[in-house]
Predict the structure of Acid ceramidase.
Amino acid sequence: MASQNRLLFVLLAATTACVVAQHAPPYTEDCRKLTYPPSGPTYRGPVPWYTINLDLPPYKRWHKLMTDKAPALRIIVNSLKNVVNAFVPSGKVMQMVDQKLPGLLGNFPSPFEEEIKGIADVTEIPLGEIISFNIFYEFFTICTSLVTEDKKGHLLHGRNMDFGVFLGWNTNNNSWTVTEELKPLSVNLDFQRNNQTVFKAASFAGYVGMLTGFKPGLFSLSLNERFAMNGGYMGVLEWLMGKKDINWIGFITRSVLENSTSYEEAKNILTKTKIMAPAYFILGGNRSGEGCVITRDRKVSLDVYELNPEQGRWYVLQTNYDRWKNPFFLDDRRTPAKTCLNHTTQENITLSAIYDVLSTKPVLNKLTVFTTLMDVTKGQFETYLRDCPDPCIGW
C-alpha cells in the first residue's frame, strides 16, 4: 500500500504541475503513422555508440565513456543531491551517502564493485554518489515494453525508457529535470570479448547494470518497474541488514545478457532469482512463441504471460501495472498502446510500426528519455532520444 500511495501522490502532484498548456489527463491522441525513420518534434536525435571491452580489467572498462560523459554525470548527480536535500535540508542524508555507502561496496557481486570504483575515479565524483546513481534505478523506472510476432514468426522488441518521475519539475519548459539530464547520458553499448559482440544495450553512462538489451541471434530483454506493497525499499533494507541472497535487478539483467545462451535459460533465471524490487521482465527470443512478460514479486514469480500466435496472441505488452488489473486512471498507457497495435495488425507489424506505437501519446510522454527497437534475428539495435512537445501528459 505504501508503494501505491507513493505513486498516487506522485502522479497527482504531476497533474497539478503539468496542467499549464496541456490537456487534463488522461490525454490520448490518434495512433501515429509514418514517424519512422525518426524526425520532427518528437525526435531529439540519435544515441551514440561506445564499446565496452570485457577483456579489460573491470576498473578500466568504462574509462573512455566516462571521460566523455563526466560533465553530464556531475550535473545529474548534483540534481539528485538537490532532491534529497530538499527533503532533508540538514544535508545529513548526503553525508551518510558519502561516508557509509562506500563501505557497502564490497557486498556487490563481481565485477560491479571494481567497475563502479573506476567510474568514480575517472569522473572525480564521490564513490558514495556513484553507488547511489547505480541504485536509484530500482525505484523510478516507468516504462512501456512490447514483443511482437509477425505472420512469419519473426519477433521484434520495442521499449520506451521513461524515467524521472518525482525528481524535479521544470516549470520554465514543462519538463522533468532528471529526464532531461539523462538524455545526454544515454548511450548504446556494444559489450565485446575477443573483439566479438557478447551483447548490446541501451543505458545511461555511469550505470553498470542494464535495463534494455539483446544478445544477437538469441534473445532480447527489457525491464519495467512494478508498483507493489512489498516494494524495492523493503529489498534494500533487507540487503543492508545482511540478506545477500537477493539481487540488484540491473545486475541480474546484465548478467543474463552477458552469460545466458538461450531464451529458455534467460527465462528460467528471471523467473526464479530473488530480486531487490518487484519488476516486470519483458523477454523475446528468436523463434515463434518465444516472447513473454514475467511478473515478479521480490522472491517469487507471479505470472508468465507468453506469446501464443495460435490463439491470436501475437504480442505481449507491459507498462507498470499487473495485466489482470486496471491501470491507474491517470497513467493508462496500456490501452492506447494496445489500440494502436490492434489497428496495425499482425500482418503489418514492423519495427517502424512499433516506433509509431511508441510515438503515440501518452505512450510517449514527458518522462520518455529514449525509444529502443530490437530485432534479434537480424541483429538490429536502434535507440533514439525523444521529446514530447505540448500538449503532452507529464508521465
Remarks:
- The longest helix spans residues 63-87.
- Residues 1-24 have pLDDT under 50 and may be disordered.
- The first strand starts at residue 43 and ends at 46.
